Inverse folding.
């Protein structure tokens, strides 16, 4: 059976609801309430008088600085690597403010309140006033640039800020919906970066087969050199997504470098993503299942398919180009093939959570199971592949997976944007991680993305 559903790719965990904290949590890295001072001439070299401002704390921040206060508090309270050195976070924010280039004329307000979450941030107040004076009166834009830079230069690659105008443009695993691309920034050694600065480059991890970029010719391992003529050097993934996003029917030109070094310009029409397809077919005596994600409808789908195939000689679970989904869904899928034990555990600074195998699996002791993966298999897909490999319940076939060992939660912000925070890392029951190298297959096989189920089964089983 083939099932098409109204669903998008989703992240490892659901977006958390509710408002951001209104006060600095106890886990905040030693905050010190800054002294409120009135400054008419900040310590900066300029021949033009700057706006008069007052430095205050984040108790009741003005709307112009609420984003900085909210993001700092969320990072301090929830990030897996907290506590952070406030000076390092402030230095990251300073880089973005210094590099900010206004996109419209204007002047700064005559007076404003500079609310900072820690005294280490006080020096940005003069810079905010300076940048605003350079060409725009919108302090929120300047502060937003500082927040985005603070995250990009100070935190892990999977924590990022989504501005309000990009709401819906990125799925929770980072897929750019308008063109169907999942990107990453990596250096030649394969380590992930947050900004596309040499030697780090922006590469395609996944081009959704039903997406417009794939149909136009974009493929995994292509390097995105420019978007509509704008070089990607210096961009974050969110900044690239902003350029890739656009109205349905509009077009964007991608300059890509192919793995062989050739350069091509590819015109991509933007359009909503196709509905992901669930596939369950019996190929001879083999039950074949392809899962494009780990959305809530997956457990019932796979359970029903296994009920029909109780007499199958072998099973093939195809997780190629599956960017992940919910942890609970991954647990239920793995539990169909495991009799007992754990699926994984998550580790955070304040707690360790175990995800036990759930009872009722239909294929816990047979038939023979093969799981297919590739570089687009990430997060929840890697959880399932990793534990089935570790328990020797399945033979893993294909190519090394993405290597994402982190869990994110999305927090809504008062400006209608969102902060996606890495709150934990996951490991297999025996403590192994997929970070960096991914799940390494037992058998390396390259399977064409357009191969039919019959061809896939033949290649996977040899």
């Amino acid at each position: 059976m083939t099932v098409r559903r109204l669903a998008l790719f989703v992240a490892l965990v659901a977006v958390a609801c509710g408002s951001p904290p209104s006060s600095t949590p106890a886990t905040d890295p030693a905050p010190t309430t800054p002294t409120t001072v009135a400054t008419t001439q900040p310590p900066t070299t300029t021949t033009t008088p700057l706006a008069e401002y007052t430095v205050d704390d984040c108790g009741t921040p003005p709307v112009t600085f609420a984003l900085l206060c909210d993001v700092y508090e969320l990072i301090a309270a929830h990030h897996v690597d907290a506590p952070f050195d406030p000076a390092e976070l402030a230095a990251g924010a300073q880089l973005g403010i210094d590099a900010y280039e206004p996109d419209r004329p204007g002047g700064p307000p005559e007076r404003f309140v500079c609310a900072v979450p820690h005294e280490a941030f006080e020096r940005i107040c003069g810079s905010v006033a300076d940048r605003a004076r350079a060409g725009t009166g919108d302090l929120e834009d300047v502060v937003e640039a500082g927040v985005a830079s603070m995250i990009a230069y100070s935190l892990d690659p999977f924590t990022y800020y989504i501005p309000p105008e990009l709401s819906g443009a990125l799925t929770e695993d980072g897929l750019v919906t308008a063109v169907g691309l999942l990107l990453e920034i990596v250096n030649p050694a394969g380590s992930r970066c947050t900004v596309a600065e040499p030697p780090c480059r922006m590469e395609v991890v996944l081009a959704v087969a039903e997406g417009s970029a794939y149909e136009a010719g974009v493929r995994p391992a292509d390097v995105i050199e420019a978007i509509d003529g704008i070089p990607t050097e210096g961009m974050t993934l969110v900044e690239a997504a902003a350029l890739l996003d656009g109205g349905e029917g509009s077009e964007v030109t991608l300059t890509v470098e192919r793995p062989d070094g050739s350069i091509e310009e590819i015109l991509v029409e933007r359009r909503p993503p196709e509905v992901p397809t669930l596939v369950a077919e019996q190929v001879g005596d083999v039950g074949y299942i392809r899962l494009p994600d780990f959305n809530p409808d997956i457990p019932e789908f796979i359970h029903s398919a296994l009920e029909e195939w109780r007499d199958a000689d072998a099973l093939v679970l195809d997780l190629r180009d599956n960017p992940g989904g919910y942890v609970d869904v991954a647990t239920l899928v793995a539990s169909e093939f495991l009799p007992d034990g754990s699926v994984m555990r998550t580790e955070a600074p304040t707690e360790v959570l175990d995800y036990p195998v759930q009872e009722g699996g239909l294929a816990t002791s047979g038939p023979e199971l093969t799981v297919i993966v590739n570089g687009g298999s990430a997060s929840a897909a890697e959880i399932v592949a990793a534990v089935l490999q570790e328990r020797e319940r399945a033979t893993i076939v294909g190519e090394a997976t993405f290597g994402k060992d982190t869990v994110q939660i999305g927090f809504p912000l008062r400006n209608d944007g969102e902060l996606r925070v890495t709150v934990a890392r996951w490991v297999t029951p025996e403590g192994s991680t997929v970070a960096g190298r991914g799940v390494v297959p037992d058998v390396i096989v390259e399977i064409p993305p357009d191969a039919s189920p019959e061809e896939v089964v033949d290649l996977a089983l040899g």
Q: What stands out?
A: The chain has a mean pLDDT of 87. The longest strand covers residues 418-427. The chain has three domains: 2-8+275-461, 37-155, 176-269. The chain has ten helices and 21 strands.
